[in-house]
Design brief:
By secondary structure, the protein is an all-alpha fold. The protein is built from six helices and no strands. Heme C binds next to α3, α4 and α5.
Length: 163
């Protein structure tokens, strides 16, 4: 009789512990799209202890190249040759491999199209416009996948005063 009681007592306390755990895990915050956006990339100047992904390195090149283009356009200089290496955006290994999708490819395509268009435009005012359109494509993708650098990217845009 005593033994039986002991066992049932132990069983119910075990059940309480189990319920407590279920409750805890149920209450843990769900991953929102915003968090996904932040976790799938690092801030532009932060040091990633795991080393930078291939895509992150490519992005840094894309960023410095874009600010170079910006200078060329503002100073009415001829652009360098089209950076074919940026095609790697389709295959470069990302920090968060789950970003790879048809939607991601579409964003990549839109960006490369706008970049290509910028290289085909000759007139100064149209070049500024085409440049800002390209930066908009960087931002579109970043709003979806990697919100951290959006502020830095937005600064690339050529403002009215510089036109
Ligand atoms: C198709 C989507 C997409 C487009 C277009 C895109 N990015 Fe990115 N970008 C990402 C993703 C995803 C990461 C995170 C890369 C990683 O950590 O693997 C990233 C990372 C970055 C970073 C941070 C790199 C680092 O040091 O970790 C910068 C800066 C950046 N992008 C700038 C740009 C600029 C400038 C453009 C346009 C010229 C651009 N991006 C276009 C998706 C995109």
């Amino acid at each position: 009789m005593m033994r039986n009681k002991f066992f049932t007592g132990n069983f119910s306390s075990g059940l309480i512990v189990l319920l407590f755990f279920l409750l805890l895990s149920g209450c843990s915050p769900k991953k929102t799209t915003d968090e996904h956006g932040k976790s799938s990339c690092m801030k532009p100047d932060s040091i990633n202890p795991n080393g930078s992904s291939e895509l992150a390195k490519l992005m840094r090149n894309m960023h410095s190249h874009a600010s170079l283009l910006r200078d060329y356009i503002i100073n009415d200089r001829t652009l360098d040759t089209f950076p074919v290496s940026f095609q790697k955006i389709y295959t470069a290994k990302a920090t968060d491999s789950t970003v790879r999708s048809n939607a991601f490819d579409k964003f990549s395509e839109n960006y490369l199209n706008r970049l290509q268009n910028l290289y085909s435009v000759k007139d100064g005012a149209s070049r500024k416009h085409a440049f800002n359109e390209m930066v908009d494509q960087c931002i579109s993708c970043h709003n979806q996948y990697c919100t951290g650098p959006v502020k830095v990217i937005s600064k690339l845009k050529i403002g009215e005063a510089e036109k």
